[in-house]
Write a structure and sequence with these properties.
The protein is about 70% helix and about 5% strand. The chain is an all-alpha fold and about 240 residues long.
Length: about 240
């Protein structure tokens, strides 16, 4: 017989399912989270739904609606800027440490990720672009040898994935991003810690400004869809 998931594992699965729906836009900003509808759609009881929603609330993905329950939190350009301010410091540290300790491993794995990112960009595939971007930065976090860096930015990435997904449908593919990624990778492979840190910080600062500006325009041009979970997901 196959082992059934534990209560904790079930909550984690529900949490990830809801998180993916929020980050992909299937659950848009301001959508009310109906616990009964969620339980029915996911084939679970209300208990793991309640616990998963509380986790999402703690992480800033949902917010209270007074006595009417909870809804998906709005997108915020200011929040994006704040996230990138933190990331600029952490990404710089990660790139510096990666250059000092793992230039050979960066050489082995980095080029493939750069190629995948450019391919996704040329194909104008938003989800693939986001996945490639995340994979590149996670490689640097891993090569830094400091697990606290990736742990610290883990939740940040989901917020940024959500914002990126919203704007990449309307924005031109960011080819310059991959030129900057390659420059960071080259510095790490060369073992030039100072250059790697400087380029990584500059990249994060520029990316934060760009994404915040794009999100501001997006929120002005496309009023956020509202609805309850009973509504159909976006095609």
């Amino acid at each position: 017989m196959e082992a059934l998931p534990t209560p904790t594992q079930l909550v984690q699965r529900v949490h990830l399912s809801l998180l993916d729906a929020i980050c992909s836009g299937e659950l848009p900003a301001d959508a009310r989270l109906n616990q009964d509808a969620l339980a029915k759609r996911l084939g679970v009881s209300r208990q793991p739904i309640v616990q998963a929603i509380q986790l999402l609330k703690n992480e800033g993905f949902v917010c209270a609606m007074g006595r009417r329950g909870v809804k998906v939190a709005p997108l915020s350009a200011t929040h994006v800027r704040h996230l990138y301010q933190v990331r600029a410091s952490l990404d710089g540290l990660a790139a510096r440490e990666a250059a000092l300790r793992a230039p050979d491993e960066a050489q082995r794995h980095g080029r493939t990720l750069i190629e995948a990112g450019r391919k996704a960009c040329d194909g104008a595939q938003p989800l693939a672009m986001i996945a490639a971007d995340m994979a590149f930065h996670r490689l640097i976090y891993r090569l830094s040898g400091n697990p606290l860096i990736e742990e610290t930015v883990a939740t940040h990435w989901h917020h940024l994935r959500r914002a990126m997904g919203a704007v990449l449908d309307a924005a031109s593919p960011p080819r310059r991003v991959w030129e900057e990624h390659e420059a960071i990778l080259d510095a790490i492979i060369d073992g030039d810690a100072s250059r790697a840190e400087r380029l990584a910080r500059r990249h994060a600062e520029r990316a934060g400004d760009t994404l915040a500006q794009q999100l501001t325009r997006y929120l002005a041009d496309f009023p956020l869809a509202k609805g309850t979970l009973e509504s159909q997901p976006r095609p």
